[in-house]
Amino acid sequence: VTAQLVDGTAVARQVREDVAKGVAELAAARGTPPGLATVLIGDDPASEVYVRNKRRACTAAGMQDFHRHLPADITQEEVVALVDELAADPDVSGILLQLPLPKGLDRFALVDRIPPAKDVDGLTTLSRGLLARDLPGLRPCTPAGVIKLIDAARIPLEGAAAVVVGRSELVGHPAAELLLSRRATVTIAHSHTRDLAKVTRQADVLVVAAGVPGLITTAHVKPGTAVIDVGIHRTDSGLTGDVAYNEVAEVAGWITPVPGGVGPMTIAMLLANTLTAATMQAAGDDRA
Ligand code: NAD
Predict the structure, then answer these.
(1) What per-residue confidence (pLDDT) applies to 1?
(2) Helix H segments across 61-167?
(3) Mean pLDDT for all residues in the chain
(4) Which of 60, 84, 166, 255 is 20 to 30 Å from 32 at the Cα level?
(5) Can you say whether the dihedral through the CA atoms of 182, 185, 186, 189 is positive or negative?
């Protein structure tokens, strides 16, 4: 069997085109387009690249770009004041606090300062609670992108055995919750799981977000499984994922490449969340 390729670049392009249309419509109806505020604290080079890409995508979709770059030695109180200012600004539809934060800042307190209606990263305690209760809200971008890819490839979820490898707050845990809300039978494996291959071989849908290059091999995958690789690793020969792509593609039913799989979906879903936030705010719903 040779797996069907799930083309994240193409799906992300479609999402971005749809968002751009929605942005134009909202701008025509409301007078101003949605706006995304990216907050970057300190000079971490990787974070600078991520934020630059997010801002470019935001502008390309026709949204306003409200970027703030703050020095690493800024105080907690000063960041709180900035988040409050952005929260009160009606032109700012979404607020993204780029993580990780420099030492000395309390990330949880700062993230939770973002009102849920503007929480386009879906990481506040309130947004996480809305997801846990399966209520409407803004969802974390990478897991939302995973579901979007699964849907685009028409991989059935209802009743399917879904295994998520990784239980991080950013990816694995919310991915499992989203799969559960789609009525999959969900198992979460992590670094303490005994006999990982035995667990992952049960999967009809396998979402891998472990951060370990090449962790998933043919020994871990039942023939026909849909394999979604969230991992990203920079190597001398380019980007690779958590899945040993060449061998697993020979047994899987579907597979996402790295690069060109989940990666491009994250920014696309950030844009989609910002449009959703702006639309809900325009309708007067402050919970998004
Ligand atoms: P993390 O380090 O916060 O979490 C990793 C999780 O994997 C943990 O829950 C851990 O228990 C589990 N794990 C680690 N080793 C394991 C093993 N040997 N067997 C089973 N489980 C194991 O990482 P994260 O933030 O969730 O990111 C995971 C990967 O996804 C990383 O490679 C990261 O770069 C990538 N990522 C990609 C995107 C994207 O846009 N595509 C976004 C976020 C993260």
Answers:
(1) 61
(2) 76-88, 107-111, 125-132, 141-152
(3) 97
(4) 84
(5) negative
Partners of 207 in beta bridges: 164, 228
Q: What does each C-alpha distance from 186 to 132, 158, 198 come to in angstroms? A: 14, 11, 15
Distance 170 CA to ligand 1 centre (A): 9
Ligand 1 neighbourhood includes 266 CB (under 6 angstroms)? yes
For residue 121, the model assigns a pLDDT of 97
Instruction: Give per-residue burial for 138-171: e unless 16+ CB within 10 Å, then b.
Output: bbbbbbbbbbbbbebbebebeebebbbbbbeebb
Catalytic residues: 54, 98, 121
Identify the pLDDT of residue 199. 98
The answer, yes or no, to whether any atom of ligand 1 lies below 6 A from the CB of 240, is no
Residue 196 CB less than 6 A away from ligand 1: yes
CA angle 90, 93, 99 (to 5 degrees): 125
Give yes or no for residue 231 CB within 6 A of ligand 1.
Answer: yes
Low-confidence ranges of the chain (pLDDT < 70): 1, 286-288
- What is the per-residue pLDDT for 286? 66
pLDDT digits (tens, 9 = 90+) for 24-81: 999 999 999 999 999 999 999 999 999 999 999 999 999 999 999 999 999 999 999 9
